[in-house]
């Protein structure tokens, strides 16, 4: 399977789900365009995103059990926001996608992918959302025990063990397709692993 066939298959899988997720956000964005009044990003959702990121920047002594609980509560709140049509802008969908990206199962990763796709549909210049489309897809495959496509997922067996690039299907997509989604080339990903391990040795 070449990259274009793979991307086409991925699109066929997710488009019906994307349409469902996008109904509220896309219609709201269209109304905004019609009225020439741009929508504001959801401030509460942005704060939840900042909390998610802060939880992961506390250094080597992160209490992951506590973070897992907070992650779960954030996903519950984002579900409520989606149901209430409070997730509307491209950045809203990107923030929501990242919160689901940090779930622990295929359902969370699949939802992250859907939300990131919607973010890109709403704003094709949102490069962070484009990267998340690839990263969430890779994580979805990883959660299924299958090789990733883009090379965004790295793994270590624990403190003191070297990092490695999670198994990758090098035939699924091309470096050009990676770059279209703001993802480093495969060579750059492998170089990053080496740099990560050099930092660990210092």
Describe the secondary structure blueprint for this structure.
Elements lengths: L2 H33 L7 H13 L8 H20 L6 H12 L4 H17 L4 H17 L10 E2 L8 E2 L9 H6 L5 H16 L1
Antiparallel strand pairs: 1-2
Q: Order of strands across the widest beta sheet?
A: 1-2
Strand content: under 5%
Q: How many helices?
A: 8
Number of strands: 2
Helix content bin: 55-70%
Protein architecture, described:
The protein has a single domain, classed as Serine Threonine Protein Phosphatase 5, Tetratricopeptide repeat (Alpha Horseshoe). It has 8 helices and 2 strands; from the N terminus they run ααααααββαα. Helices cover 66% and strands 2% of the residues. A two-stranded antiparallel sheet has the order 1-2. The longest helix has 33 residues, at 3-35. With 202 residues, the protein is mainly alpha-helical. Strand 1 (154-155) and strand 2 (164-165) form a beta hairpin. The radius of gyration is 17 Å and the shape is globular.
Summary keywords:
mainly alpha; 8 helices; single chain; Serine Threonine Protein Phosphatase 5, Tetratricopeptide repeat; 2 strands; about 200 residues
């Amino acid at each position: 399977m070449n990259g274009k066939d793979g991307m086409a298959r991925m699109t066929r899988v997710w488009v019906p789900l994307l349409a469902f997720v996008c109904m509220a956000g896309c219609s709201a964005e269209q109304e905004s365009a019609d009225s020439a009044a741009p929508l504001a990003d959801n401030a509460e959702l942005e704060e939840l995103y900042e909390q998610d990121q802060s939880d992961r920047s506390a250094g080597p002594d992160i209490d992951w059990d506590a973070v897992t609980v907070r992650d779960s509560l954030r996903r519950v709140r984002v579900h409520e926001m989606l149901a209430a049509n409070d997730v509307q802008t491209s950045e809203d969908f990107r923030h929501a996608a990242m919160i689901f990206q940090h779930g622990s199962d295929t359902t969370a990763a699949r939802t992250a992918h859907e939300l990131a796709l919607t973010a890109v549909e709403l704003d094709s210049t949102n490069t962070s959302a484009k990267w998340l489309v690839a990263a969430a897809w890779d994580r979805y495959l990883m959660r299924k025990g299958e090789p990733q496509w883009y090379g965004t997922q790295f793994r270590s067996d624990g403190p003191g063990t070297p990092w490695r690039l999670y198994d990758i299907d090098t035939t699924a997509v091309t470096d050009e397709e990676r770059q279209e989604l703001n993802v480093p080339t495969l060579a750059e990903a492998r170089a990053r692993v080496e740099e990560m391990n050099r930092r660990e040795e210092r």
